[in-house]
TrEMBL record:
Keyword terms, alphabetized: Nucleus, Transcription, Transcription regulation
UniProt-annotated stretches for the region Disordered: 1-28
Pfam family, one: TFIID-18kDa
Protein name: Transcription initiation factor TFIID subunit 13
Localization, UniProt: Nucleus
Regions of compositional bias (Polar residues) in chain numbering: 1-22
């Protein structure tokens, strides 16, 4: 009988930030249509191979999941997760950081425009 060496184990590391493949199940294909359109927009075929779309989906989901786990680790030190945790993680990737800040400012502008529109509707309703 040969015993495995003490350094090797078939179990995932307990403190690892990478979840094991069996720790969660996700529905595959949720983003397939969106990814097909994005791939076409970036120069791929209008109908890319399903295997290609599945691979891109796996890569994207893995990246976003990893980023969310890292942001959660950062946010847990303060007790809550915030947008700034994500911005901190992408701070060295200037194109991503610039795009995120642009989208966040557009979101704020839309929020203010909706609020102003609701106020205008309320004024009209009181005048009638």
């Amino acid at each position: 009988m040969s015993n495995p060496s003490p350094g090797t184990s078939s179990k995932a590391k307990v403190g690892s930030s990478q979840p094991s493949e069996t720790s969660f199940k996700r529905k595959r294909g949720v983003f397939q249509k969106d990814l097909q359109h994005m791939m076409y927009g970036f120069g791929d075929d209008a109908n890319p191979l399903p295997e290609t779309v599945t691979l891109v989906e796996d890569i994207v989901v893995e990246y976003v999941t990893d980023l969310a786990h890292k942001a959660q680790d950062i946010g847990s030190k303060r007790g809550k997760l915030s947008v700034e945790d994500f911005l901190y993680l992408i701070r060295k990737d200037m194109p991503k950081l610039n795009r995120c800040t642009e989208l966040l400012s557009m979101q704020e502008e839309l929020k203010q425009a909706r609020k102003a529109f609701e106020v205008d509707e309320e004024k009209l309703a009181t005048l009638e």
